[in-house]
Sequence to fold (177 residues):
Amino acid sequence: MAFPRPKKTDSEDELYEYAVGALARRMRSVAELKRLLRPRVEAETEYGQTLVELVIRRLKNQGYLNDARYAAAYSSFRRDNERFGRRRVITDLKAKGVHAEVIEKAVDAVYDDVNEELQARAYLRRKRLVKPKDQKQAARIFRQLLRAGFGSKTIFTILKKWDVDDETLSALEGEAE
Fold:
């Protein structure tokens, strides 16, 4: 079944109501909301672009839309619930269209007092990953921790404590670079 095309509108109030409904479902960045609103107006026209900007400005003035709060909430959620590392959160926020300065401030504030090794171990527990039995499992855990946003130094510390052989560690070092 194909999804129907979004209904086009040229009314600021209708677009505003749609935006408020979208924000009620979940928090969004400014860039995400703009991407969501553009198909609802004639985005190629100057009027459509102005309409989207008016709605965004109105939401910002009312406090419904704030990238700094969004980045802080997103970062703390990903740290506490998903147990992701700093790099993963930064990458995800960039993909959501948040500006680099806002990301840096939010992530620094959230990850300021976090011990990355303890965070990585919590991630491993959450994913039910245990000490690797062979080189293949060690490489799998290494890659999974890299994708989760942890630094290679932290990953190697964990693998060394698990007594992974030096040959495997040197092979993984070449992969990390």
